[in-house]
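Quick log. Single chain, no ligands specified.
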Amino acid sequence: MRSGIFRKVKPYLVALAIIAVVVTLVATIYFTQGNLPWIAFLSGILAASVLAEAARASRSEWVLMRRTAQLAAMKDKFEQESAHRRLAEAQASEDQHRLHLLDETLSTMIALVDVTGRCQYHNRAFREWLHLKSEAIAGRPLRELFGSKAYAGIATAVQKSLDGQALHYPLVQEMPGGAVYRLSVEHVPLLDASGKAAGFYWLADDITQRDDLSLMNPVIKSAAPVAQGVPVVQGVPEKSSAKSSERVDAGMQFISAIERDEFCLFCQLISPLIATPGKTAHYEILIRLIEEEGAMIPPGAFFPIAEKHGLMPYLDRWVVEHVLTWAASRTGRDQDSIFFLNVAKTTIADPAFPEFLLSALEEFGMPGSLLCFEVPQAALLTAGSHAAEFMRQIRQCGCRVALSGFGRNSVDEIHGLQLDFLKLDGGMILNMLSNPAELAKVISIERMAKEIGVQTVAELVESDEIVAKLGEIGINYAQGFGISRPRRLDE
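-> predicted structure:
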């Protein structure tokens, strides 16, 4: 505090000192009557004082300028650091948003597998797919999470990716508990600073369709008895096991979920590849089961239950009625679009389904041309005459027919069938750019389809390169994540 007071009065003290020296010099000149030695002596003192104060003032000014420059530099540095901090905070916020997107929102299942084959990171979609909590996944080997049977199908691919190889492949996989999934899987290697593989990211999208179940169980079971559209779950003998009782309970819960409208319809765009007047976009209808917390259960988790109890015809009826209800509320819109509906093997074998379909179309006042029923090619091997008769009766209702998963077996199987669309197997489409044999098969199918007057739809189209190649070949339509992701029908 004293130093502060001194700095304030210092200029006044210096001025008083100079005035005192000047007064003294004038008085000396007056009293000594111009004595030169005294005048010179006092003048020297005055000059020295003035010079000393000037030097001190100059040094103070220089110090002030240096401190001012330092302060300005520090201010600039502070502003730069503040800007960097704001940028870092914005980047952190953006990274947090991206992390939230990956962990909580993104439907793609993601898991980071280290070099020992253990899961070191996973997102919510991966947890929900496995029906496990986070602590039950972290650090566990992929073999244990998938189960030995399911892991055996990907073991070779896992080893290749642990060696640093990127992979992309379709996979039909049965998980512990009986759930069946068709996945589009991608392995992205993780490299360390030296370029050595440190693990890989396992990414998968659920693209399950009903005909994928036939790949796991090709035997068609008879449909459960259907009375007025309501299936009957077979009773359990008194000596049946507790496990059988649980299965029947699961079947009753499934029926209850249908009756309470706990299912939700999604649609995926089927886009024309060649711009042609009159050619419009179509949509495939997909179904999800709504959980208590609003999450969507994919079809691979509940289709096996419905298949075991012969409940798929009941679910297919529900889908038809809800699509027609939605379409009837949009009179005059999407009138040229076609909605592709998958049908189960048991529905194909259900002789009452065509009659139900005709009644539903009349009830809602909708043309049959609005709907196209997809029959899986695998059903031709197991259903035989049932499939051909189903197609014939569906077309009599004015509806269209598509053969899905085409390309897995011989093209001779479609001889004599009346078809509107051939949907090319997704696995063949996914690999056609890297596999000349698959590409040749796609070209051959396209030529054959043109000869018999059937339009072609490529499934599982996931990149612009595949889209371009399909357009070059002459395929009519494309469907897949490279075209559009599924979205709720009511949106």
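The chain has a mean pLDDT of 77.
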